[in-house]
Specification:
heterodimer, A: 325 residues, Cyclophilin, 2 domains, six-stranded antiparallel beta sheet, B: Gyrase A, domain 2, four-stranded antiparallel beta sheet, ATP-binding (chain B), PxpB (chain B), nucleotide-binding (chain B), hydrolase (chain B)
C-alpha cells in the first residue's frame, strides 16, 4: 500500500484511457503524456498501458507501506527517497517505510509514477483511468487526497537494479525556453478564417492561459476572426481539436475533451504532439505548424520506433545491471 | 431544405486529425431533421461493423468516424461511407424505448423560464404546456455522460443560447436552447436556459448500460410541479 502524505494540486490514477464510450458521452481520459507513462511502466517491467499516477506540478509525497519497485518519468521534480536524491527517467527499489518526495516541477508539468504491477483500481468501462467529469475510475473518480491509501500489487519480482535513461536518450518532452511547437492538420472551418487570421495561427506565439487543465488549454493572443459568423450543430470532436469560440481565442481540447462540441474548428493537433501539450504550463507559448495527414502518419510511425528503441535500451540496461549484482 | 429518409444530401467531409473524419449532412439546415438522422443511424451501424473503425460518434445531422489508420486508410473510410450513404436505411436499426421525465418547472432558475416566455411571447403556463405536451426523439448522446440531445422542441420555444454561460448548473436541470431540449447529467457550466429540474438519473454507472437513453428513444416531459 502507498499512503498519500501530500497529494499535490492534481494527482490522478491514469492508464491509456477509455475507448468505445464516446457515443454515450464518456470521453477518453488517460495519461496526458502517454509516451512518458509508457516509459515509466517499461522501467518497472509493466505493460506500457498499466495504471500510473499522473502528478501535476509536483509538490507531492508518498509513504510506502510495502516493498516495491518504482519509476519516475515526465517533468523533473528533483525527487528524493528519504534523504537520497533520485533522478527522473529512473527506476529503483523501495522498502516499506520509505518516503518519496517530489518538489515543484521546474520545467514541464506532469510527472508519472509507476509501480511494479501497476496501481490497483477497479476497471470501470474498460479502464482504470480517473474521469473527473464523469466521476468514475481511479480512486472514486476524483483526484487523490491526503491520507488516501493506494493499493499496489505485492512485489514478488526479481531483485531489481536501480538504473535509468541517460540524458542523451531521454525523450524531448518539455517546452524549450517555455515554448513548444505543435503540428496540426487543418479542420473543417479553416477556410472560414479570414486570410489574416489564417496567417496569425501559424505565425504568432500563443500564450497558454491560467485556465488550462486536463480538459483543454486556452490560448491567448491577437483574437482570430471568421469571414462571417458561423452556427454549427453539435458534432463529435477529438482531443487535439483546436476550436475557436466567439472570443477569437483558441482552445485546444485535451485528453478529457468533451465528446461533442459546436465551435468552429481551426484544426487538430497531430496525435504525436499531444504529449508536448501535456507538459506546457500557463505562461508558456505554443506555436502551430501545419502538417499533412500523410506526414502525421509518418511522424506517428517514427514516434513508435523511438519508443521501441527506448524500451530496447531499458531491456539491455536491466540485463547488464542485473548481471553485475 | 426538407429531407426524408429517402433524401441523400451531399456529405461535407473534413479530416479531424489523422485518425478521424467528420461527415456533415446538415450544413444547410436551420434545425436538425429526423429523416436525415435516421439515415445517419443506419450508416453508423454499418460502419461500426468494419474492422479498423474504432468508434462512430453521431452528432446532430453529422457523424464522426474514428479509425485506426494502420488498419483502414482514410480513403477507404470515405469510400465505405459514400457507399453506405447511398443504401437504404436499415430496418429496425434501433431498439426504441420510451421515457417519461417528471419535471418541477421554474424554481432556482425561474428567470430563465420568464426569459423564454418573454422571448417567445407566451405566458409561462403556455411555455410549460408546450414543453410538456411534445414528443421528443433522442438524436444522439454526448458532451456529458448520457446527456441526450433531443429533437422535437416546438418551434415557438426555439431560443438562442445564453450570451454568457452560467459557471455552474446542477445535474438534473431541464434545459432548452438552439431548437433542442435536454437534461444535464452532471453539474457543470451551462449556456442553455434552465426551465425546470428533475431527479431522473440519465447516467448511472451501476446499470448494465449506464446511459439511460439511446439514439431513437422517445422522451416526454410531465409536469410534477411548478415553482414560480
Amino acid at each position: 500500500m502507498i499512503e498519500v502524505i501530500t497529494p499535490g494540486i492534481q494527482t490522478t490514477i491514469q492508464d491509456r484511457g477509455r475507448t468505445k464510450f464516446r457515443a454515450i458521452g464518456v470521453g477518453f481520459s488517460g495519461a496526458m503524456d502517454a509516451f512518458s507513462s509508457a516509459i515509466a511502466n517499461h522501467l518497472v517491467m509493466n505493460d506500457e498501458d498499466a495504471a500510473v499516477l499522473e502528478i501535476t506540478y509536483g509538490n507531492a509525497s508518498f509513504r510506502f507501506h510495502s516493498d516495491t519497485y518504482i519509476a519516475l518519468t515526465g517533468a523533473d521534480t528533483s525527487a528524493t527517497l528519504d534523504a537520497k536524491s533520485i533522478p527522473c527517467w529512473w527506476s529503483f527499489p523501495v522498502k516499506a517505510g520509505q518516503v518519496l518526495r517530489l518538489k515543484m516541477s521546474s520545467e514541464g508539468l506532469r510527472t508519472y509514477l509507476a509501480v511494479a504491477g501497476g496501481f490497483n483500481a477497479p476497471e470501470v468501462m474498460g479502464s482504470k483511468s480517473t474521469d473527473l467529469k464523469t466521476q468514475i475510475g481511479g480512486l472514486s473518480g476524483r483526484p487523490l487526497r491526503k491520507g488516501d491509501e493506494l493499493s499496489i500489487p505485492a512485489y514478488k519480482g526479481p531483485q531489481c537494479p536501480s538504473f535509468g535513461l541517460s540524458k542523451s536518450i531521454q525523450p524531448m518532452h518539455k517546452p524549450v525556453n517555455g515554448e513548444c511547437v505543435v503540428r496540426f492538420i487543418v479542420g473543417a472551418e479553416w477556410t472560414y478564417l479570414t486570410d489574416d487570421s489564417q496567417q496569425m495561427v501559424v505565425s504568432s506565439p500563443w500564450q497558454v492561459s491560467n485556465e488550462t487543465n486536463r480538459l483543454g488549454a486556452r490560448l491567448e493572443g491577437v483574437p482570430l476572426s471568421l469571414k462571417a459568423p458561423l452556427e454549427l450543430m453539435s458534432h463529435g470532436i477529438v482531443p487535439g481539436c483546436i476550436q475557436l469560440p466567439p472570443s477569437g481565442q483558441p482552445v485546444i481540447q485535451l485528453q478529457d475533451a468533451n465528446t461533442c462540441g459546436g465551435y468552429p474548428k481551426i484544426g487538430v493537433v497531430i496525435a504525436s504532439d499531444m504529449r508536448l501539450l501535456a507538459q506546457i504550463k500557463p505562461g508558456n507559448t505554443v506555436k502551430f505548424e501545419m502538417c499533412s495527414v500523410e506526414d502525421a502518419l509518418e511522424i506517428a510511425k517514427q514516434e513508435r520506433k523511438k519508443l521501441s528503441k527506448i524500451f530496447h535500451n531499458i531491456d539491455m540496461m536491466r540485463k547488464t545491471f542485473s548481471h553485475q549484482k | 431544405m426538407k429531407t426524408s429518409p429517402e433524401n441523400k444530401p451531399e456529405l461535407i467531409i473534413s479530416m479531424m486529425g489523422e485518425a478521424a473524419i467528420l461527415f456533415d449532412a446538415g450544413m444547410e439546415l436551420d434545425a436538425p431533421e429526423l429523416g436525415l438522422q435516421t439515415r445517419i443511424w443506419s450508416v453508423s451501424k454499418r460502419l461500426e461493423a468494419i474492422k479498423g473503425v474504432s468508434e462512430v460518434i453521431v452528432g446532430m445531422n453529422n457523424f464522426l468516424v474514428s479509425f485506426v489508420p494502420a488498419d483502414l486508410p482514410h480513403a477507404e473510410v470515405q469510400q465505405k461511407v459514400s457507399d453506405y450513404w447511398q443504401q437504404d436505411a436499415l430496418e429496425g436499426a434501433l431498439n426504441v424505448k420510451s421515457h417519461i421525465i417528471d419535471v418541477v418547472y421554474g424554481g432556482e432558475y425561474l428567470e430563465d423560464l420568464k426569459r423564454v416566455a418573454e422571448y417567445s411571447q407566451l405566458s409561462i403556463d403556455q411555455v410549460i404546456e408546450l414543453h410538456s405536451t411534445s414528443k421528443y426523439t433522442v438524436f444522439t448522446l454526448g458532451s456529458q455522460p448520457g446527456l441526450p440531445y433531443l429533437g422535437g422542441l416546438p418551434s415557438q420555444l426555439d431560443i438562442p443560447r445564453r450570451s454568457s454561460p452560467r459557471a455552474r448548473v446542477e445535474s438534473g436541470a431541464v434545459i432548452i436552447a438552439g431548437g433542442q431540449a435536454s437534461v444535464l447529467s452532471r453539474t457543470s457550466a451551462c449556456g442553455w436556459h434552465v426551465i425546470g429540474q428533475t431527479d431522473y438519473d440519465v447516467f448511472n454507472i451501476n446499470n448494465d448500460s449506464p446511459a439511460v437513453f439511446a439514439p431513437g428513444d422517445i422522451v416526454e416531459f410531465r409536469v410534477k410541479g411548478v415553482h414560480l
